[in-house]
Write a structure and sequence with these properties.
- The protein has 152 residues and is mainly α.
- The chain is built from seven helices and no strands.
- The longest helix has 34 residues.
Length: 152
């Protein structure tokens, strides 16, 4: 049986979205590097709200199916490892989400008040940290998908 027969369709689609998210984020970053700030803002905001919607859909779908304990039933990876791995994944994803929200709010306030200092320094630094967090979370999410649905 192939992994796509074992994994629920929603899980495959969500994994595909979050695996490609860093690529789309990088495209948005390139807009900023090229001075296209309005495109950067629109792309980042669109990705933020789409990511929230996909996450809510994912969380609801997993719970409807019985939660994490139901999903790990056919995995050959030990429960102790999977649960610890999932906790780290959720922690990185949650911290990234909170940082993303902070960046959005702070950027909006700074832009509205014409405080360009935030855009030039802290926004770039926090954006790099956020990109790293989302990329790491995406890799860990893909690994979790492989642990749960790909036969070894």
């Amino acid at each position: 049986m192939a992994f796509y027969d074992r994994a629920p369709l929603f899980m495959s689609l969500v994994t595909l979205y979050f695996t490609t998210l860093p690529i789309f984020l990088y495209m948005g970053i390139k807009f900023a590097k090229n001075g296209e700030m309005e495109k950067h803002r629109k792309m980042q905001m669109g990705l933020f709200f789409l990511s929230l919607a996909v996450t809510l859909f994912f969380e609801a779908s997993v719970r409807i199916r019985g939660g994490f304990l139901e999903e790990i039933q056919n995995s050959v990876i030990p429960y102790a490892f999977l649960s610890k791995f999932l906790i780290v994944h959720i922690a990185i994803a949650s911290l990234s989400l909170f940082l993303w929200i902070y960046i959005i709010i702070k950027s909006f306030v700074s832009y509205k008040n014409r405080e360009n200092d935030f855009f030039k320094k802290r926004h770039k630094i926090m954006g790099k940290i956020l990109f790293l967090g989302i990329t790491l979370s995406a890799i860990m999410g893909l690994m979790m998908y492989i642990f749960l649905f790909v036969e070894f």
